[in-house]
Amino acid sequence: MASHPPTLAEAMPALLRHEGVWRGTYRIVDLEGRTLDLHRSTIEVRFPADGPYAYVQRNHFVWPDGRELRVEHPGVYRDGMLVWDTDHIAGHAWQGDERTCILTWRRKDQPDSHLYELIVLADTGVTRARTWHWFRQGRLYQRTLIEEERVAD
To answer: Rounded to whole angstroms, how far apart are CA atoms 97 and 59?
Structure first.
């Protein structure tokens, strides 16, 4: 009997628990822990039932000075991972354990940087913590610390 490759739900059930709308803060810090940037975020995560994408994330960022940024990150499911290659980012994600997802990616506006991200969902599913580790030429140079709370399904 031939086996089928695992579906997204089978390979990454922890990721499916992130569907919904999340509000929080992004704090970018240098290696000494000094804040370089702080802004609010609203992140919407969806898993479309049909269409070309297995995952769509919509980000809305707001800075204290009134600046705003909206960006969408659609992803496809391939080879047991979620894969992105958009105008803004390229990378992939996989499940670590029942509450964690791990990503490695780069921002296309900063081609000399590479990021590693860990997303940890609380047992309740109501809050999550994310950390980005930024590397340039093989050296860590900053981190992004993200705290979020689910505000809608």
So the answer is: 25
